């Protein structure tokens, strides 16, 4: 079961898509315009299905606005299938498009294929705060550019990002990243965090907050 957001200005399309996808066990939220969706809600979804031609904010514009903040598949529902339009959509971060009018079989097949692939890929990567964590090779990138972080710095970022919003002491972070038997001083965590902040600030990202008297958290 996946949480799917569908945005289309045609009420009949919303009713049809919701009915079809809910039969597959998915939880479907619908909206007639992007403006009805709060930015904070977007991270709750596993897949976005967007109409391209909508009054106000169109699908292309919405995709461009949110792609840096979310990592789930984005599929376009569109009657526009000119090569230039499709290429533009992919360039904005879309994963696929479904041509209108579409069959319910095609809709289900495309969505389920992307969800299966997403489930496989998420084992080795995650996207948090606009940063892509490669869990396999222990690296962090932004816009496909790998950030020059040390192994321990990556470990600290990964630990805090996986537990986003939770506060951890320097001792807890040190033990989680270096292990109980590691030789060293937990106070070095403060130095590593300072270095991490300096490196991420170069990309305009400041995700680690200090909670005075306690430790650190990833916002």
Structural summary, described in words:
This protein is an alpha/beta fold. It has two domains: 3-121, Rossmann fold (3-Layer(aba) Sandwich); 125-218, Winged helix-like DNA-binding domain superfamily/Winged helix DNA-binding domain (Arc Repressor Mutant, subunit A). It contains seven helices and eleven strands. It has helices at residues 11-23, 59-66, 83-91, 104-121, 151-162, 170-178, 188-201, and strands at 3-7, 27-31, 47-51, 74-78, 96-99, 125-128, 131-134, 139-142, 145-146, 208-211, 215-218. The strands form three sheets. A five-stranded parallel sheet has the order 2-1-3-4-5, with helices on both faces. A four-stranded antiparallel sheet has the order 6-7-8-9. The longest helix has 18 residues, at 104-121. The two termini are 28 Å apart. The model has no long low-confidence stretch (mean pLDDT 86). Residues 3-115 form the Response regulatory domain. Residues 123-219 bind DNA. GO terms for molecular function: phosphorelay response regulator activity; transcription cis-regulatory region binding. Keywords: DNA-binding, Phosphoprotein, Transcription, Transcription regulation. Residues 123-219 form the OmpR/PhoB-type domain.
């Amino acid at each position: 079961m996946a949480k799917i957001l569908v945005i289309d200005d045609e009420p009949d399309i919303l009713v049809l898509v919701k009915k079809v996808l809910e039969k597959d066990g998915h939880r479907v939220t619908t909206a007639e315009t992007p403006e009805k969706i709060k930015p904070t809600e977007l991270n709750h979804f596993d897949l976005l299905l967007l109409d391209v031609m909508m009054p106000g904010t169109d699908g292309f514009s919405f995709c461009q606005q949110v792609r840096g903040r979310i990592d789930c598949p984005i599929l376009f529902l569109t009657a526009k299938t000119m090569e230039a339009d499709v290429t533009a959509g992919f360039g904005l971060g879309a994963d696929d498009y479904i041509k209108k009018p579409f069959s319910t079989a095609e809709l289900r097949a495309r969505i389920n294929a992307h969800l299966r692939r997403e489930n496989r890929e998420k084992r080795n990567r995650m996207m948090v705060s606009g940063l892509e964590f490669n869990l396999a090779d222990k690296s962090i990138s932004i816009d496909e550019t790998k950030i020059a972080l040390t192994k321990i710095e990556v470990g600290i970022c990964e630990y805090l990002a996986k537990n986003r919003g939770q506060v951890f002491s320097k001792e807890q972070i040190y033990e989680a990243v270096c292990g109980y038997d590691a030789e060293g001083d937990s106070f070095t965590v403060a130095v590593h965090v300072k270095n991490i902040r300096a490196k991420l600030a170069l990309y305009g990202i400041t995700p680690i907050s200090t909670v005075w008297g306690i430790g650190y958290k990833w916002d």
